[in-house]
């Protein structure tokens, strides 16, 4: 899973990236200090893996992971090549979802590229650039389809769909706001439009607001806007996340509790990412390793096995599966089998989050 962290310059993108990946991307109080996208791979926290490690006495734990791309700050006119516009837009096309960091804190020592703190204006600036870029791509695709339709009458539905998307873009709206059927969504996704990508608005607040537990007016405005796009909102403090990242594991929870926080911003961001992209994890366990695998909700057993190795999907016979909660309740697979909690499932089985699975296959 690849997530692109975007935003105007100096909103806290690289600070957030440094904190959640501990990768040390350069962070400075001026635009464009991030030229090439920094990439950080983050393990997805999953306490179930530690439990399984104890049950199976496994040698190692392998969590699933997310790749975060810290992409250069955008400015007005990026779709026309302003700033690092063309590079910025190209990098966004490579990610599955966008984490749009929005500045929701006041700090006279950190300059704002637009000269004032206005998160809705910041959101609009980036969304408009994505929409303008999409409109240019769509115009070319529509012209090509219309030309080809003279010799291929089957393109009528495609042209109709492209025209529907064009209307939305011409109205200055993101394609993600469209109400589409699953087939229509599949076609629109194939266009790889920037404004159709799922988005999480990451409201970056001050340390004072964290301590006070206050949801400021900037955050409220972001949440109201996000609701119009069915987008996710995560409220974090980049500076706090940096402090958390520098602590040892055993000290992190105590530090968060001191601030009145139940979890880190990274945990909230990962949870929102899974929800936004409709993802779940299934688990495999044995004496060598326990491991989490990320799949789309609704994935069938053979395709889930294919995440482990293509041979499993190709030669799938059946899968032995048990819910994580059932396995931990009875302690061992053999004990769970005695009470009928272990099931043999075939190729039509839809994998559920937390399924502990053993695949049978033959190639």
Automatic annotation (TrEMBL):
Q: SUPFAM superfamilies of this UniProt entry?
A: P-loop containing nucleoside triphosphate hydrolases, TGS-like
Keywords, ordered alphabetically: ATP-binding, Magnesium, Metal-binding, Nucleotide-binding
Domain TGS: from-to ranges: 278-361
InterPro entries named among the record's database cross-references: ATPase_YchF/OLA1 (IPR004396), Beta-grasp_dom_sf (IPR012675), G_OBG (IPR031167), GTP-bd (IPR006073), P-loop_NTPase (IPR027417), TGS (IPR004095), TGS-like (IPR012676), TGS-like_dom_sf (IPR023192)
Q: Which Pfam families match?
A: MMR_HSR1, YchF-GTPase_C
Span of domain OBG-type G: 1-256
Q: Does the keyword Signal apply?
A: no
* Domain of life (superkingdom): Bacteria
| Annotated residues for binding of ATP | 10-15
Task of the protein:
ATPase that binds to both the 70S ribosome and the 50S ribosomal subunit in a nucleotide-independent manner.
UniProt-listed PANTHER family: OBG GTPASE FAMILY (PTHR23305), OBG-TYPE G DOMAIN-CONTAINING PROTEIN (PTHR23305:SF18)
The similarity comment for this entry is:
Belongs to the TRAFAC class OBG-HflX-like GTPase superfamily. OBG GTPase family. YchF/OLA1 subfamily.
- The entry's protein name is Ribosome-binding ATPase YchF
Query: Coding gene?
Result: ychF
């Amino acid at each position: 899973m690849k997530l692109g962290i975007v935003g105007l310059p100096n909103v806290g993108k690289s600070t957030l990236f440094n904190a959640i990946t501990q990768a040390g991307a350069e962070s400075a109080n001026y635009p464009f200090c991030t030229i090439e996208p920094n990439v950080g791979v983050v393990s997805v926290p999953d306490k179930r893996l530690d439990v399984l490690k104890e049950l199976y006495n496994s040698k190692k734990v392998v969590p699933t992971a997310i790749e975060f791309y810290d992409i250069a700050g955008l400015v007005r006119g990026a779709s026309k090549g302003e700033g690092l516009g063309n590079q910025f837009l190209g990098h966004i096309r490579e990610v599955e979802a966008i984490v749009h960091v929005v500045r929701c804190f006041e700090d006279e020592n950190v300059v704002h590229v637009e000269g004032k703190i206005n998160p809705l204006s910041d959101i609009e600036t980036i969304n408009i650039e994505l929409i303008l870029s999409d409109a240019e791509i769509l115009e070319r695709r529509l012209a090509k389809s219309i030309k080809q339709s003279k010799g291929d009458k089957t393109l009528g539905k495609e042209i109709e769909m492209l025209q529907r998307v064009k209307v939305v873009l011409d109205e200055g709206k993101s394609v993600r706001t469209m109400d589409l059927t699953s087939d229509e969504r599949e076609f629109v996704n194939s266009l790889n439009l920037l404004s159709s990508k799922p988005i999480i608005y990451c409201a970056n607040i001050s340390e004072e607001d964290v301590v006070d537990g206050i949801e400021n007016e900037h955050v409220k405005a972001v949440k109201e806007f996000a609701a119009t796009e069915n987008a996710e909102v995560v409220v974090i403090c980049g500076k706090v996340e940096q402090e958390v990242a520098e602590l040892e594991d055993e000290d992190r929870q105590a530090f968060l509790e001191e601030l009145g926080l139940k979890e880190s911003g990274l945990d909230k961001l990962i949870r929102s990412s899974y929800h936004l992209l409709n993802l779940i994890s299934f688990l495999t366990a044995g004496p060598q390793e326990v491991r989490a695998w990320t799949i789309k909700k609704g994935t069938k057993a053979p395709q889930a096995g294919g995440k482990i190795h293509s041979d499993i999907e190709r030669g799938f016979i059946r899968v032995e599966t048990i819910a994580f909660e059932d396995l931990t309740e009875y302690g061992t697979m053999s004990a769970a089998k005695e009470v009928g909690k272990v099931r043999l499932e075939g190729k039509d089985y839809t994998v559920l989050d937390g399924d502990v699975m053993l695949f049978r296959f033959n190639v």
